Description:
This protein is mostly helical. The protein has two domains: about 1-100, no CATH class; about 105-180, no CATH class. The protein is built from eight helices and three strands. Helix 3 packs across helix 4 (about 80-100). Zinc ion binds near residues 57 and 59.
Amino acid sequence: MAEAESERHEETEAARPTHDEEEEELLPKKGATSVVWNFFGFRKADKDQKVILCKVCRGTVAAGGGNTSNLFHHLKIKHAKQYYESQKMRGAPAASKIKVAAPPLVQKSLAESFAKGTPYDKKSRRWREITEAITTHICKDMVPIYTVKKPGFRELLSTLDPRYVMPSRKHFTAVELPRLYGVP
Length: 184
Ligand SMILES: [Zn+2]
């Protein structure tokens, strides 16, 4: 009689979703790629990771097929602070993507210059040669000095020699042009 009672007692203990379970740390999504998964997780018991739980409110969120927009939406409408954080985290790589898209030629040539070798030292003969050639081009052909900032021109140079990194427009005005004209 006493035995049966204690058994029953154990049973009810096990069946009841305990307070501990609610507090349980959620497991991160396997193979997660989106920053939004920082704010969602799964119970250990949920082996297939089917029930997405919000770490903030512990509410379940439906997001089929790895679609994270519902998760972002949940943060957006329920947890402004976390949503802001998620956007900040997401913003880091996204911002650089936008940068690449804006002046594609310059960005590409920069990446290429690193891929094809270390940039020339500014004291090297080759660097001087090219810089002087640009200065000569500016003077002889009477092209505006801001040409050195134009993406097409920069692309031309990086195609000819990816290791050459052009100095600033200011450097041409302050140093290279006076030097070409023999101004002390
Ligand atoms: Zn939530």
